[in-house]
Amino acid sequence: MHAGEVSKAAPDLEKGLARETFSRLLAACYYEPESQLVEEDVFGALGRAAQTLGGGLAETVSHLGATFQGESQETLLLDYARLFLGPIGILAKPYGSVWLEGEKIVMGDSTMAIIELYRQGGFELDAEFREVPDHVAAELEFLYLLQFQLNEARRLGDAAGEAKAAKLKQRLLRDHLGRWIGPFAAAMRGGAQTAFYQALADLTAVYVLKELEAC
Questions:
Q1: Which of 89, 109, 178, 195 is deepest in the core (most CB within 10 A)?
Q2: What integer is the mean pLDDT of 128-139?
Q3: What is the pTM of this model?
Q4: How far apart are CA 168 and CA 122, in angstroms?
Q5: d(CA 213, CA 207)
């Protein structure tokens, strides 16, 4: 590798690592809100990754962390339940099939397709994961895994591995997550009663759509 190639590779790898971190921690925000998000410095790590990625993400992350700490856990849990669980009506259904195939469709053809994509990428859902496979948290975690694989392939100079991971990431964003994240985030923002979930909706849409544009 020549000196010019090294200088170009360094910031590319730095941004790749930031994408890896950002995707993983963004997924964590879609589980039940717990104090560990603050205790484990999730918002601080998100902010550092956002600074590397640019594009105005850092300001939104800063707002996200402040709004989380500005609400009681009970208030956040109530909003989380209203948005994603029900029981009367789920305001922002966090399942890809609902947005890709119709409001009442869960575990549809698109779900089967994402399961196959997971298989090709070597992604296995945790045994304790109680949601359907196309839940927003699962697809964001898959995005993290693919970025991790990309980073590793680049670090090792594995062109074939890099091409495979890049193709799977492109398919995830173009055929699945990138297609439904916009309407999902709009429903989430419209239904949220806390500034935290409003900010999370905005951050998720901006980040995923930026990743889609970069494919």
A1: 178
A2: 92
A3: 0.92
A4: 11
A5: 10
